[in-house]
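>> received
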Amino acid sequence: MLFEIIKLLITLFWGARKFKKMPRMSVTLIAEEKKKLGNDHYKAQHYQSALKLYNDAISLCPDMAAFYGNRSACYMMLSNYNNALQDARTAIRLDPKFEKAYVRVVKCCIAMGDITGAEQAVKSVMEFDPTCASIKVEVEQLQQLRKLETTIKSNYEANSYRNVVYYLDNALKFSPGCSKYRLLKAECLAFLGRCEEAVDIAVTMMKIDSSSADAIYVRGLCLYYTDALEKGILHFERALQLDPDHAKAKEMRSKCKTLKDMKENGNVLFKSGRFREAQAVYTEALKIDELNKEINSKLYYNRALVNSKIGSLRDAIADCTRVLEINGHYLKALLLRARCYNDLEKYEECVADYESALNMQKTSEIKKLLRDAKTALKRSKRKDYYKILGITRSSTDDEIKKAYRKKAMVHHPDRHANSSPEERKAEEIKFKEVGEAYAILSDQYKKSRYDNGQDVDEYESEVDPNQMFKTFFQFTNGGSNGRTGTFNFEF
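>> returned
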């Protein structure tokens, strides 16, 4: 039956259009039917279909406040809060006593984060009905939003960006259409190094409004924090073209240019061998923005290289450690730190770094470095026979003998017969070590194995220091009093 009525009305409508004398009553009836159909689609959650029907109804009767009110509700369900707000205000203009339209204004303003607008709309509703219960929830949301904005502001000023993101997420539950909250969240995410998330938000907002200076500023911030300084500068300049008073864009453009110039200057000085000057420039550059981890990791690495060149190995290690704290996969920094540890004879740390490097990149070069480091570590854990005798690896056989003679006489137990038990024990140990050292270094085969890092423990257990001492002086002195096999050495 309804279908037949609509069909009849449509026939009348087109007939009237043809003859340019459609009755006003018929137009209104058609518009009402469109609205009713729209309501049916709305209830079935077919919002796009409902929107089309409301559009048709408004095109037929553009002065009906209720039609705009219904379309406003439909826009809200489609998260199009701007159009919803516009329709609600149009409905109020057509019917200043349309209470539902005021309620929708409140809802839209909250959804868009316009607290002042929402509060004004609440005031208008209360003028109609001081006991209005339909906006009770919205009034509570407004109070919570006010508190959240105060908390967000204080945390932002304190650079507590994680907290800002947390409270903004809560605010966005009330105000999902607030571009200000979304872009502030994106800015804080960029400060926290979560640039991919920040870019997603900025790009989405730029698609909605390509002239948004705030969105372009955030996009530039993400480029800056990913070491795309040239592109970052271009975005900050674009934001300033759209809004010449954009203070954040001005600050970041200046910071971006300064950092870019200092980084390039430091690299030029390093390549020209002016290491001290390069070190000073890198140090100053690191003071510009502690949040820019991408660039700072490179600056720390460059300064570590400089420190290694000028012999400040511990400073180089400290800089490499800072790099790896920022980016644990920075292979160059790991290899440089390993090399510095090796030069400082900190072989355990050196081996650990080369093992980590090999896990990142399995190359023959790193494998060789690791083998060498392990050999050096093994060697470092053995007794340093050269040090015990007070000689170097290049010492001749005669120098080795002279060194043994001297050390053996110094530490021989008979020389310390009148010392305390503790002192005698210490000297006995040193005397034994001197004998071991001479037993290894005076034998070319054993010495070669020792120098190559091979095990010599089996030789150490064979050494009798007293017998070694007797044999040495017997053969070097030809025996005491010319009697072979008799030893009688006096200190």
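>> The CA atoms of residues 174 and 421 lie 83 Å apart.
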